[in-house]
Amino acid sequence: MKTKVAIIGAGPSGLLLGQLLHMAGIDNVIIERQSGEYVLGRIRAGVLEQGMVDLMREAGVSERMDVEGLVHDGIELVFGGRRDRIDLKALTGGSSVLVYGQTEVTRDLMAAREASGATTIYEASNVQLHDVKGEAPYVTFEKNGETYRLDCDYVAGCDGFHGVSRKTIPAEVLTHYERVYPFGWLGMLSDTPPVNHELIYAHHERGFVLCSQRSMTRSRYYLQVALSEKVEDWSDERFWQELKTRLPQDVAARVVTGPSLEKSIAPLRSYVVEPMQYGKLFLVGDAAHIVPPTGAKGLNLAASDVSTLYRILNRVYRDGRTDLLENYSQIALRRVWKAERFSWLMTNLLHEYSERDAFDKRMQRTDYDYYMTSNAVLKTIAENYVGLPYEPIE
């Protein structure tokens, strides 16, 4: 087998990159170790920056998103029972975000991939990358008991934090930056109407809470929990009761309860690896960086990586600009670190830390009070939340 770009991983970043390359006439093959049903079953983010919305439209997969996606012009923050609305649209000169679940993004991209006839290989085991530093990289994998070889010009590692792509790069080449937070998010999905038409991020002495949504009839709620907590210990009744306890009374009174469709606990961490490229291998999304979900940046940051790599590869094949390849990591990392900073700031501002003393807690409250009365800070929060501009490739 031979292709121009081998894409490792069929999550939304791999599928989006594959679709954009296909639209540009650049042949690519996607290799995924899981089944398509497994990939589609992952419950993840649901807030899309304008940059990702535009990228979906450029990829020709926005029809359903444009109809079903919910435009949000603001968000609400709560601290000590005080509610503050941040007017994203007014503070950014007209920008907003779109609520459209990652599962739906993946579904749309899968459908476009199938319709295009481009090759996607699911349930590939023992995936290995070879000679990525040389002139002729290739990928080997096993499928149905047979071993296959895929020759390519470049490899895009879109296979997440636990994938093979980053592990292919020699350890001495990489620098890792990490902050592990002492708590996780317990998330629950339910077919109930959202408690609010915009997202609510709330600090409470019992822990952070997020009221999010996937549609006007499907809600996604999150509770900050200790890392020692187990999903099976959280009945639906216990979850709803704790959610109401942490919300202001007027908001709690509007919560519509119902059976959960899914519950899971995700630990929070900030992580970046540098560089994001090695020879002809380019890391994309979670393979190179992870952000706490507090800033709604995970999927969006992967999309900006995709945009950068796609535009560089397009210039390589269209104009012979191979000199641009060496710029990928530097360009991507500038935006990565800004998103890491914003997610870190929001996490520190809104979560409860057991190790904080009285002084730290008072400073946290003072930070919040100052931020909500400073137009400059509100503008900074809004600009970051709707998404900073994509970096030019030259």
Detailed description of the structure:
With 394 residues, this protein is α+β, with helices and mostly antiparallel strands. It has a domain at 5-69 and 99-178 and 270-352: FAD/NAD(P)-binding domain (3-Layer(bba) Sandwich), CATH 3.50.50.60. The protein contains 13 helices and 20 strands. The chain has helices at residues 12-23, 36-40, 50-58, 63-68, 88-92, 102-116, 164-168, 236-246, 249-252, 298-319, 328-350, 358-373, 375-386, and strands spanning 5-8, 28-31, 47-48, 70-72, 74-79, 82-87, 97-99, 119-121, 125-130, 138-143, 146-151, 154-157, 175-190, 200-203, 209-213, 219-225, 260-274, 277-278, 281-283, 289-290. The strands form four sheets. It has an eight-stranded mixed β-sheet with strand order 6-5-14-15-16-13-17-20. Strand 1 (5-8), helix 1 and strand 2 form a beta-alpha-beta unit. The mean pLDDT is 95.
Keywords summarizing the entry:
13 helices, 6-stranded mixed beta sheet, globular, 394 residues, alpha+beta, FAD/NAD(P)-binding domain, 8-stranded mixed beta sheet
